[in-house]
Amino acid sequence: MYNLVKRQAEVEILPMAASEQMGVITYSPLGAGLLTGKYGVNKRPEHGRIVDEARYSDRYGANEDFVAAERFTKYAQEHGVKPATLAVAWVMANPAVTAPIIGARNLEQLEDSLAASDFKMTPDMYAEISRLSRTPALATDRTEVLTGKWS
Hints:
Blueprint: H1 13-19, E1 25-27, H2 49-52, H3 54-60, H4 63-78, H5 83-93, E2 99-101, H6 107-114, H7 123-130, H8 143-147
Parallel strand pairs: 1-2
């Protein structure tokens, strides 16, 4: 799983894959619809995976996820691109990602995701979008590494 709000793969999986020259095919670039413009802090569709299915509401139900989705949607609108297109393009722009797996319930959704292949993501844009969500913490179970304190 890899998308703007679920970035844990950036901590170990994607760097290791890049180091070892392994291909990575990610899934859920739209975060179960969270990054399509349908969701925000006070915005929910009547139906959708996050609304209708507990596993998705558990995975994408944190307030910070909705804050990031709202920021992301605003960014997409300011740049004249559909949020779904931009979300898939952002995943594709990570040099360690070989390809994202996309899904669609209708032709319009498919076209929005496929448009990412023609979108020109600049390094500056990639960095700006990355700052719209929380960067995942380092992979460690040793709190002294995170705090700089040794016992």
